[in-house]
Amino acid sequence: MKAQIGKIKIYINGIRFKIKEDSVNKEKSVYLIIGVNVEKKEILCFWIAESE
Known about the structure:
Layout: E1 9-21, E2 24-36, E3 41-49
Antiparallel strand pairs: 1-2, 2-3
Protein name: Transposase
């Protein structure tokens, strides 16, 4: 049995934000990998890093 997969687009994006951690203001980034096809979009992976 074969499953046919249509066109899939992959988006990679980073979002920076400021947080307060241990009474110190820090800047962190959240990186996202999103897959989109005709039926739905789905977060494939994400991670948090100290900065961009």
